[in-house]
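User: Fold this, then the next.

Assistant: Folding the first:
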Amino acid sequence: MADTSDFRNGLIIKFKNDLYSIVEFQHVKPGKGGAFVRSTLKNLRNGKVLDNTFRAGEKVEVVRVERRVYQYLYREGDSLVLMDNETYDQINVPIEMFGGGEKFLKEGENVDLLMDENDQIVTVEIPITVQLEVVETEPGFKGNTATNAQKPAKLETGATVNVPLFVNEGDILKIDTRTGEYLERAKG
C-alpha cells in the first residue's frame, strides 16, 4: 500500500474497484483544515477522466504494470491480432480495448500493451499520431480557401476524416488517433 505522498503522473492505482492512471495531481495545504491532494484520474478500461480529492496521507493501492511493445498484424473478426516483438507470440485483443483508435492503425504499426502481474491486458496504448496516405477525396478548387471549408478524405486504413480543401489523393497526412482529426500534411 502506498499513500498520497507517493503520487506521480502515470502511476496506476486501484480506485473504486477499477484501474486508474494519475494524469495530474496537486498537494494543497489550506490555511485552515488538513492538507489534501487534488487529482485527475483516467480510467484505463473506458478512458473516462474524473477529478477526485484525497486526504493527505490516504492509503491507495498501487498496481504494478509492465509495458510491452506489440506489432499490429491484422484484423480477425471482433479482435486485432498482435505479435509480441520479443517472443513473436501472437495474441488476439478485443477491438473495444483500442477506444476507436484501431481504425487508424496500419499493419506493422507498434502498439503498447500494459499488462498486470497476471499477464492480463490492462489497457492498449496506440501512437498519438500516425501518418496515413489519402486514397480517395474530391479534388480541391483554387481560391476556395477563404473559409475553413473541409471535405471528407478516405485514408489507406479505411477511416474517413475531414480535411482542408487543398488536400489531394496521394498526400500523406498526420492524424491524431485520440480525436480522429487531421493535424497537418506530413513533411516530405
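Now the next one, as you asked:
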Amino acid sequence: MTDKSIDQIMALAPVIPVIVIDRVEDAVPMAEALVAGGLPVLEVTLRTPAALDALTAMKAVKGAVVGAGTVLNPAMLGAAIHAGAEFIVSPGLTDNLGQAAVASGIPFLPGTANAGDIMRGMDLGLDRFKFFPAMTSGGIPALKALAGPFGQARFCPTGGIALATAPDWLALETVRCVGGSWVVPAGPLDPPRIEALAREAAALSRH
C-alpha cells in the first residue's frame, strides 16, 4: 500500500499508461521503459491471466507506482491488493465495490460517465474519478457539462484518447491526467519505442 492519496498519484504525470499484458516476463522491461520515459504511474488492467503476477513484478522497478485497473468487484479488489497494487481503478462504480475499496483504505479511482455515478462516489467520500469511456461518453463537451455541478471533483479521462487529443483534455481545469493505452502498443514488446512514446506523453503540459 502507498502513503500517497489518489490525487497525489494523479499529479505525478500527465498520462497514466493503461496496460494490457499477456506475458509476465514483459512486465519489468515494460515498466522500466515507462518510468525511464517519465511515466511512473502504471495501471495494469486485470484483463489477462498474467496481470496480477505482472503487477507484482513491476513493483520491483524503482520509481514505479503500480496499480490495478479493470477492477470490477470486491473479490478482484482483494486479489489486486494481495498482489501489491498501490491504487485501484475501476471502469464503473457499484456500491459493493465502492464500499469495499473505501474500507480497504487504498487510493481508488472509480469510473464515472454521468452525474449519478459522481453523486454515488461523493456519497462514499470520493472526489477523484475516471471519466470512462471518455470519447463515447460525449468527449470534452460532456465532461465540461458534467464537471459543472461538482466543483471539487477532478477527473482522469480514459478511453479513446491519443497523443494528438490528450492536450485538449489536459487543458481542462477539472482534468488532473489522462489514461492512455497508446503508450504501450499491442504486439511484441519494444522497450525503446515504449520509452520514446512515454517521453512524448510525459512532456504534455497540463492547465
